[in-house]
Amino acid sequence: MDKRLKPHFGEMEVSQITKADILKYRSSVAKQSDGSLKPKTINKFIKCLNMIMSEAADRFNFTPPHLNIKPLKEEKVHIEPFSIDEVNLILQKVRPDWRDYLLVRFFTGMRTGEIDGLKWENVDFTRSEILVRETYSLGKWEYTKNDGSIRYRGGSPT
Predict the structure, then answer these.
(1) CA dist 19 → 45, 52, 118 (Å)
(2) Do 72 and 127 lie in a common domain?
(3) What are the start-end ranges of the E strands in the chain?
(4) pTM: predicted TM-score of the whole model, two decimal places
(5) Structural domain of 28
(6) 10-residue stretch averages of pLDDT, the chain, 158 residues long
(7) DSSP 3-state of 97
(8) Closest by CA position to 19, among listed 68, 92, 55, 61
């Protein structure tokens, strides 16, 4: 914050910062970095500024200017998943107590927190369904944003 936001906005009253100021800042950061800062990083700076603006707007009762600023388009990260042969090899070589966990990871598309938050009451072997209702991450249980979604439907993946 001291290095990126304060030099540009430090002397301005928060309520006087406009959408044009934010867009100008974003553009100047991109140009100054000469391509060394990725859009994702610049978006993080703007997100930090947005949080400050939202808090100030709540406290001092003004309309924050950042509400309709779209983030810069970020590059898609290329992911190369394991081939089915690699998955089968991993499942053959893994310790037996990890096999079922890895089966769920490889074949359901569930996120880590969803798998870690999975409870037996949300697994229906008769209908081949897993209901995602809670997540577990960083020592905290949380309900999912929606009421629960079915993440795996179909026969056994093995």
Answers:
(1) 15, 14, 43
(2) no
(3) 123-124, 129-132, 134-137, 140-143, 149-153
(4) 0.52
(5) 1-79
(6) 82 88 91 86 92 91 85 87 95 96 90 91 89 89 75 56
(7) helix
(8) 68
